[in-house]
Amino acid sequence: MVEFVLRERMDKIRKGRKDSKCILCEKRTKPGKRRPLCGETNKNLRNFLSKNFLVSPNDDDVICDTCRRKYYREGQAQVNTPTVLTNDTNANDPDFMPPSAPKRAKLSSPLSISLPISSTIKGFTKEANEDITSVYTVSDFNRSGLLELIDTIREHALKNKNARIDFDKSSSLNDTDFRNLTGLTITDFEDLCSHIPNSAIRDTRVRSMRTCIGIFLTKLRSGMSNKILATLFNISKDSIRKAISSARDAVKQHFTPKYLGFDHVSRESVIQNHTRPLAQTLFGDITNTTAILVIDGTYIYIQKSGQFKFQRSTYSMHKFRNLIKPMMFVTTTGYIVSVIGPYLCNSKNNDAKILNSIFKNNLEKIKEWFDKDDVVVVDRGFRDSIDLLEEFGIQTKMPSFLKRNEKQLSVEDGNTTRLVTKVRWVVESVNGRIKQWRLLDKVLPNSLIPYAGEYTRFVSAICNKYRPPLNAGNETDDLLLGTKMLHMSKKKNELMERVSNENLHSRSGRWQKIDGNDSVEDFPKLSEEDIRDITLGVYQVKLAKSYTEEHLENDDYYEVMQQGHQLIRVRMASRHTSSKTHNLWITYDDCCIKTWYCTCKAGARIVGTCSHISSVIWFLSFYRHQTKGNQAKQWKDYVHDANQPEVVDDSDSEPEE
């Protein structure tokens, strides 16, 4: 019997040594730094643990000295709590807070549920809690509380780590960042997302509807691959692909049809809201009831394909590259009415045949949209469509062709061509605007060819909705400019006739370099606005600056000959072929330029000037009188030229005997 009792006590001792963990902090404790929880003397301690820490101690459990001190501190705080004495004088004290009432108030909410909540004093109001001052600067944490805090911080960090670029919070990116990434401002992005219902794009753990739209716009704007986008947005490549696919289908259904296509805008709306007064003056009628559209194809370059038939069908003999062509229908203000295609680019799919196919198949009900005597402005590539368009009663405005065995357009053809180009330039600017979304400007991977049309139409819809008109024009200014151009188009070039009659092109004389203010001193001084009134546009003025830069680099670029009173002849090289030169004549007086003529292809016209004449006028009348600033960098200085003459060192040559 004695042996059994000793053995039982030894087992308890071993068990205590092995499992002597604190019931509260679960730390192993040494025998001298722990206390058992059994017995009547530790009843209050067990009640304290059950009430404050929700643990139920057993007879074998122990508690460490550190945790036991919490019990003694709690008991000491209750002993030191002062007793509050009240009297009648405290009722008038505004800072006096009476003790809580002992009875419990019965609050029921909802039915059959009673909440026995003690009534509280005003010291527990929100304002009172905010006025509490900190007494202790150090807080005690046990291991479990510290681990819980670390887990919470880690979870929050991991959640935020997945959102490097966050489109769900507009405040995470400023307006410039939104414009750089998507091509839209924050307000425009919010409006675009409002067009897409929540059911159109399913939210997942890694992306929302706004994130899908943002990724899709970033893809179009930057042209980056899915791998790079996966790195930027910190999601997998497959998630990027699914996000782009979901966004593409959603905008195709809910956004693009509202802002693109012949169905989305009426003919009357185009006439009233999207037609420039200059175009109506040049090609419309006095009632302003003519719809005027500019038609042209744009290029989307693609990769070479292993499908040989497709590669042959997409190879352009004009660009010497593989490409596909969407057909653009644009108003004279730059508003895109429709984008049809894309089409192949072989000889059977030139601009004229594509337009003929669109009208014959009545795509988007285009024949019902146009009315009799409406006008389409096209380039020379649509010459085979003129007869078909005339069958539908549509007028065609197109630049003139050179006649057989002629090297220069006649005065009449040059003038009418300038009227056309004055209106047709807008479609080229529209093509440049949609190429600001770099995916359409780069070489498109063949895997994206099925979606090239959708991408082009979506970007066009964005331009219609969120971009201002390229040039809406001013009604008064456009009317004056159009009337001036129509009046000048009926004139003859008197200087051209004088050059021919007096044989000025073969008359010899002394050529003088234009090298400063001492050349042609009586040439009038003009402003850039005066020069634009002569050229009737800004394109020739831009080219004039490039011609002048080449003249400043080569002093012999401009050569001038005086062939009469206030009549000069200038000889200058072509910008395309260095071996080819052009001769031009300009007459002037003390305050203005009177007439001009150039031997280039378009130099006989009166409506505006060619770039050669504008460059001479710009240099003599404006540039040489300005204070010269820093010159533009010459890019050829950073590229080697193998045609430079070899330098010979005389020291290496043998001495003559």
From TrEMBL:
Keyword Endoplasmic reticulum included in the entry's annotation: no
A Pfam entry, by short name: DDE_Tnp_4
Cofactor(s) needed: a divalent metal cation
Residues in DDE Tnp4 domain copies: 295-464
Taxonomic superkingdom: Eukaryota
Keywords: Metal-binding
Disordered, as annotated region: 638-657
Signal sequence residues: none
Gene Ontology terms, MF aspect: metal ion binding
InterPro entries: HARBI1_dom
Biased amino acid composition, Acidic residues: 647-657
Protein name as catalogued: DDE Tnp4 domain-containing protein
Annotated source species: Mytilus galloprovincialis (Mediterranean mussel)
The organism's taxonomic lineage, starting at the top: Eukaryota, Metazoa, Spiralia, Lophotrochozoa, Mollusca
